[in-house]
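LAB NOTEBOOK - FOLDING QUEUE
OPERATOR: T.R.
BATCH SIZE: 2
PURPOSE: Compare the predicted C-alpha cell outputs for two unrelated chains run back to back under identical settings.
PRIORITY: normal
REVIEWER: second-year student, initials M.K.

ITEM 1
FIELD SEQUENCE / FIELD STRUCTURE:
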Amino acid sequence: MEGPPAKMKRARVKRKTMANMTAIDTGRSEGDERPLFGGMLADDQSREAVAQAADILGLNTGALGEGGIANAVRRFALTAAPRVLVVDLAESNDPGADLQALADVCPPDTLVVAIGTINDVRFYRSLIAAGIHDYLVKPIDPESLLESLRQALALLSESDTGEEAVGQAGRSSCRTLLCCGVRGGVGTSLVAQSIAHLLAERQGAAKDGRVALVDLDFHFGTAALAFDLEAGRGLVDALANPQRIDPLFLERAALKVHERLHLFSAEAPLRESVGEEPQALNALMEVIAAGYSHLVLDVPRHFLTGPLIADLLERVDDVLLIADPTLASVRDTIRIAARLKELGISAAGGESGRRSVDSASSTSSTSGGQLAASCHLWLNRVPSAALQEVRTRDFANSAEQRVAAELPFDPKAALAAARAVRPVPAAAPRSSLARALRRAFAALAGTRENATQGGNLFGRLLKRGER
C-alpha cells in the first residue's frame, strides 16, 4: 500500500501541550508502577533515532527492545507496558489486527507512537481513529519524533495534574459545519456568522464548550470585519509554518468575540499564497478541533476545485450550500452538488448521510468511499413571490435538491448588522431575516418537532442545553 509522497511525507496530530514542561523522570512515572517510556524497534537505524530523542528528553534509553509489534505483544503480555510506547509496524502484515492484540495487553491509557513504512494519509487516519497517538514514516525525522514524544509526555503531565487531556475523544466530539456559497454574493458569510453566533448563544445556555468560526478566505474574508475585530497575521503565520501550530499558538491567533465564540480570520497580502499545502491546513484543523466543541467553516467556492477539499470534507459533519433564487444559482448548485457527490457527500435525508446519536466516536468516512456528512441547501435573499427569478419549487426540482430553508431578502436587517458590526440575530433580532435564521438553525440542529431526525450536527449539544 503506497501513498503519494507529495501528499504526505509525515502526518502530524498536534495535541494540547503545556506552556512550561517540567523535568521528566527517567524511570517510572510518579504515582504509577508502570514504566514511563519504552519501545520496540525492528531496525538499528530506528532504534538509534528513538534512543537519541529519549536521551534528549531524559528518558530511559535502556527501555528500547528489538523487534516489531509482534514482539511488543509478547513482551507486554508478561510485563507492565510503559505509559508512552514507541512501536514498529514495518514487519506487520495486518497492522489493524496487531494493534488490537497490543491493545489487549496494554492499559487503555497507553500512548502509542507508531512508526512504519506505509506513507498513506488514509492509513494514518485509520491509526489515529484506532487510538494511536501519532504515526511517523521511516526514515524517522528526528525533530518530528522529538516533538511527538514531547506532546505525549505533555498529555501525561496534564492528566497527572488533573488538567483536561485533549486526545482522540476530544477530536471526535468536535462537530463541524462547512458553509459554502454556490456563487459569490449570495450571503454565505452572513449565514455562517449568524450560525456561529446562534450556536455560541446556545453554548452559553448549555455551559458546555466553545465555538470557532474559521474563515478560509485568507485574502478577502469578512469574519473579523463582521464582528468589529482586526485580523492579524496569526492565521497566516500558522499556515506558513505548520510545525509551529499547537494549542498555545492558536490561542494567541484566535480573535475573541467573547468567551464562547472565537474567530480565525486573515487578511493576507495579495502577493502571498496562503493555505495551499494540505499538510498545513490539516494541522490547523486538527488543533482547532481539539480545542473547540463546534466549528463553523466559511469556505470560498474556489476550494471545491482545489486539492484541499477532499481532506477537508473528511472532517465535517454537515455541508451547507447557500444559493439565491436565480437561474445562475440553479446551474451552479447542480454542478457543485455533483462535485460533492463525487467526493462522497450525499444530500440530507439519505441513510448514508446520517450519523446515529451515539456515533460521536465513529470515523468520518463509511465504507465504499461514502462520507458521513450530508448536504443541506438554503436559499438566501429570497424576495417576494412576484420578484423571484426562480420559484423555490422550481429551484428544488431543477437542482434535484430539497430546499431546507428560505431566508428572506431583508436589506434593513443586513444594514443594521453592518452598522452595529454584529450578526443579524444580534443586531436585528426582531427582523424577518433573524427569525428565519433562527428557524433554519433550529431545523438544522434538530430542535423543532418538524426537524430532521437523527444524529445531526448540533443535536446533542442542543438537547443538553434544553435539559
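ITEM 2
FIELD SEQUENCE / FIELD STRUCTURE:
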Amino acid sequence: MKARPAAHVKRPAEVPVPPMSMEEAGLRRELVLELVMKTIYFAGECTAQDVSRTVKLSYSVLEEVFGFLRTEKFVEVKGVDGVGKTNFRYLMTEAGRARTREHLERSQYVGPAPVSLADYTRWVRKQSVLDLEQDPEFLRRGLGHLVVSDRLLEALGPAVLSGRSIFLYGPAGNGKTVIAEAIAASMQGAIFVPHAIEVDGQVIRVYDPNSHTTVAFERADEPWRAGDDPFDPRWVPTRRPVVLTGGELTLPMLDLQFNPISRFYEAPFQVKANGGVFLVDDFGRQLVKPHDLLNRWIVPLEKREDYLTLHTGKKFAIPFDSLIIFSTNLNPWELVDEAFLRRIRYKIPVENPTREQFEVLFRRTCEARGMEYRAAAVEFIYGEYYGKRGFVPRFCHPRDLVDHISDTYRYHGGTDTLYHKAVVQACEHYFLESPFEPAPAGGERAASLR
C-alpha cells in the first residue's frame, strides 16, 4: 500500500540529516552490502541511482559497496545511462546470484536501509509527546466537529499535554473512541518515522501506511518541494500516528512479530504509536485479562521504556513514548485494582448527553442527511422513551435514530404524514424493551407527535 501525502504542514525546526558515509548512516557495511545485492538481484538490471533510490542511501555511502561488488565480480557493468558512476547499469553475475541467495536465506528484507537503534531512540526523544507545544484552544479546534462539554474539554486538555496515560470510561455509545481519535488529530505538527530499524543485525519494519499518514512540509512563502531542505530519506515525515486496537489485542501482539518466511520483524503496536496516540478500545473485553495487560506495561508506563526480545534471545530497550488512551464502558473498579489505576494518571468520565446536546446532535444529523429538523421528534423521543420507558440518552442515539427515520422516510416516499410514522417506527425498532412487551399501536404514538 502506498501512502499519499496529506496536507502541507509546518516543517520541524530540526530534521534527520542525510548521511554521507557508512559511519554517519550508523550501519554495518555487511548489512548495506546485502541490501544492495538483494536489490540488484530482484531488479535484474539497474543503475546505481536506482539502487540508491530503493535503499534510500546516497551514492557517496554506497560507492564503497559497488566497488567491492565489481572487485569480487558479483556484478558487471552492462552500460551507462548517463554521465557519472551513478548511471552505470549493473547486472548480477552467477557468483553474485549465488551469494545473494545465501543472504535471502537469512533475511528477505529488501527496501529502505534501516536506521540504528541509537538514532531511532534519539529521534523519538526529540519528538516526544511529553514536549507537545499547543495553545489552550488546540483541543477545542480538534474536537470542534463533536458536541463536547466545556467540562470534558477542561479535563482532557491537561491530560493530553501531559503525554501520560488516560482512562476514558463511561456508558457505551457516548463517543469515547471518536473522542480519542479526535485527540490524536488535534495534535499539531509532524514527526519522522523510520522505514525500519536495525538491532543486532536484524531488521524491524516500523513505518506502516495504515498507522502513519505522510505529510509534505511547507516553507514560509510556498509549499515544500522534493529537493528543498533535504532530510534523510530513510525517515518518513508523518502526522503523529494513531494506532487503534480493540478486543482482538493479545499479549503476543505487544512483542516483535517475526515472520519465519521473510525472516524480518514487524514492530508491535506500541512502537508504531511512538510520538502519537495508542488507543486501547473496549478495554476489559480483550482476549487477554486486564490485569495481565497492565502487568505487561507496568515498567513501560512509568519508565517510558519497553523491552523487546529477538528470536535469537537478544533483549533490548526501546522508547515507549505515546499517549496511551484506555477506553471502556465497564466499571473500572471491576477491571483492575487501585495499584494499576494509580499508574493510569488521568481517569476521565465521558457522560451521557444533556437535552441541549442531544438536540444539537439531532439537528446536525438531520442537516447532514438533507432532512428537515423537527423539534417535535425530539420531544416525542424524550417524553415516550427517556421519560415513560426509562431509557437513558446516549450520544450515538441522534445519529442512529435519524438514520432510521431517513431510511423509512425514503422507503415510503417522504410525505409530511409519513415523517411522524418514521419517527415512531425508528424508535420501535431501535430501543430494545426488556423484558419484551408488546409495543403500543403506531397510530397512538403518531398522534402524540402531531
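REVIEWER COMMENT (ITEM 2): The two ends are 54 Å apart (CA to CA).
FOLLOW-UP: none requested
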